[in-house]
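User: Hi! Is it possible to get a structure for several chains at once, not just one? Here's what I have:
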Amino acid sequence: MSNATNTAKKGGFLAGTANYLDERVGVAGILKEFGRKIFPDHWSFMLGEVALYSFLVLLLSGTFLTFFFQPAMTNVIYDGVYGPLKGAEMSIAYKSALDISFEVRGGLLMRELHHWAALLFVAAAGLHMLRVFFTGAFRKPREINWVVGFALFVLAMAGGFTGYSLPDDLLSGNGLRIIDGMIKGLPIVGAYISSMLFGGEFPGHQIVARLYGLHILLIPAFILIFIVIHLFMVVIHKHTHYSGPGRRDDNVVGYPLMPVYVAKAGGFFFLVFGVLMLVAATVSINPIWMYGGYDPSPVSAGTQPDWYIGWADGALRLAPSHLEVVLGGYTWTWNILIPMIVLILLLVFVAFYPFFEAWVTGDKREHHVLDRPRNAPTRTAIGAAGVTFYAVLWAGASTDLIATHFMLSLNNVLTTMQISLIVLPIIAFLITKRVCLSLQLKDREVALHGRETGRIVRLPHGEYIEVHEALPEHELYKYVDFVDYQPTIARPNAKGQITMSARARAAWSRFYFEDRVAPVTAGELAEANHDHPAIESNQTKVLH
Amino acid sequence: MSDKKGNQPASTDSHETDHVYSGGLAVVSADKIADPGLEPHRVRMTDKSEKHAKTANRQVVTWFLLSIFGSASSIVAYFAFPITDDLGTVRNNTFFMGVAIALGMLGIGFGAVHWAKTLMPDAEVAEPRHLTRGSEEVRARAVEIINLANQESGFSRRKLIRRSLYGALALFPLPALVLFKDMTTDPNPAGTLRHTMWKAGTRLATDPTGTPIKAADLTLGSVFHVVPEGLTSEEHPEDYLEQKAKAAVLLVRLDPADIHSQKELDWGYQGIVAYSKICTHVGCPVALYEQHTHHLLCPCHQSTFDLANDCEVIFGPASRPLPQLKITVDAEGYLVAKGDFEEPVGPSFWERKL
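Assistant: Yes, the chains can be modeled jointly so their relative placement is included. Here is the combined structure:
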């Protein structure tokens, strides 16, 4: 009998179980490795967690729905409990969605939970991406993880779209009709792809079952795989932390996984689940019974997709009239192709931004300390411009509702949006950049001369001054610890040539770093303190 | 602190100096203000006072008890609020079950987070972080393994094997090209898009009742949603929606004096004109008609067509006018089509003009 077994017996049931597991799966080694792993703590790190937990809610509620939903488009006559649709012809898919809502206890709750969770999933993933962008968390070594996260965001939108198309109601059917119209507009292959997708002519009898396969198998499987890769890389890199005293690129500051992080993150899962459940129980979403089953002839006014498809719908709406061209008998329907190109370019820009910025800065170091957005003014301004561009596209999907709610002319709303799409991002860029630089200057000011106390003191010779209070050294460090870059000039390479790439990089480096505010140095601080001896460490004194 | 790369010698704590990366355009200041190190821990009330700790303890327990109450209540709600033929019961079932389940979850969530924040240690700790790249030693071993694998398999050496493998790998997805082909059985999708159910003599019938329409039924300004007579789900069980998605027509009677297009007048009947209801942008039904302006509006993307001028696009993203259906009346006075649309209806496609 080994010593281990002896110890286990002494320890009782728990120790016995632990011993059993260790001898079979090596759980002690896993705990030693990960049990006290440090996780930094910040509210903005929760956004990714919200997305993750929403996805788990989606898996659970979605599985429930698959037990009742029938993805078939065969025509049936409705004979269920919902009076207004009694006797109406509809597809089996739509009927089973109605039955889940009205004849399964908790069915409507699960449908609403699933829909709300989907809305939150995409929203949280998007906000998480913005957090990562604006804090520079995508810098080396996390560029690839940014791309994985980007793929997750696109998959989340795909999951959402394939999901809300399943009930085969009037609203989602018109959404599919729009997708069909966009696909048909593709050069050369459009009509074929449309025919393959719908199994013949639109709407056909196949599309719901096909989207169902994608929605419950392929897309969630990919999301799951990418989440695993995403989190695995977080383990490899360890989480980033915000700049501050004691936080460096070669350490990680935070709470140990066990017990604090397990309690917080585990508890937070239940909070996200609970809040979604509460919203599902109290706020109606996607009342498909009000739309009726799909019929290609009617449509309701004010049709809109779920929020995360809005930017695509907006892009379609904002395209100018009369862009179609016929060349050699072939139709180029630019009024559809241009919006699609704009959407794809925006996505490509997002996916590749980390590599572009890395090329401009030429910084090959690992970065684990996050930037405060103000300390990367040009990046922050680019982000603000991108968000504005997306927001205008998104608002573009509501031109009709904006016009009717605010009693404006639809034509004026649309024209304003078209102009805004070009102009507002530029304005957002300029304003954001100036605001960032001003905040940096203010930071310098506070670091050098302390913070205003509001105390006005009269000096013996009659002069009035406001007393400034030096920052405590731990706080001071937050103001002065950031990465600072300077622009470069195009230099000849080994052959003595100045390449196009070098010129481009020099131009971009000027664009990024021409306006820069350097962090306060120790020398500057000493000099400032010398000028104003009132400012001594942590003490407030009055000038004499 | 646990060292992530456990099998490395202890000296790898200075791993950071193993490899120096270029900072690019970064300004590395020699005169940087020194890092004062982690802030001293701020003591919480629950750390200082036993009374506060006890209160926090009670609060956590209360949350967990609330959770138990909520989860149990959801079972009660399931039986207490069954669903009957009365739709109000659906609302009660959803609300009470949902709120109870939510309480069950929120109780655990608030309890656990409160526990972590008040009673577990809140002093931040640091652990070292190493460069992602392996140490020189590890990298050398990785290269060695690759070389060994290469040597043992002869991957570089046996050129023919390698190249034929590349070829095989490049071609193995080929079957997918034909496998997916049968997702449609239509050999000529673009051709199918050219024709609708309308034929010479097909009566115009109302949607959804299917009643044929007489010219005399239309008063000035009235609008009918129209399908070809005989397009019902009984007579077309296989392709009812597909036919309807192409053949749907909007029928309007205008004052002939208001119509600016001679072609529109000629293709209509005494000011009664029939236009495809399928938007030429991306195919939504153009369902909104504004009587006093004679404008047709698509609710999806707001393309606007001028019904008084051959449905030309006057606003929005569409490029082409709605196709007009030639109509006349038959011997009994019913409106009939003179033939199919002269151009494909609905969204543009590549071969549309061929």
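The first strand of chain B starts at residue 125 and ends at 128. Residues 70 and 100 of chain B are 5 Å apart (CA to CA).

User: Great, thank you!
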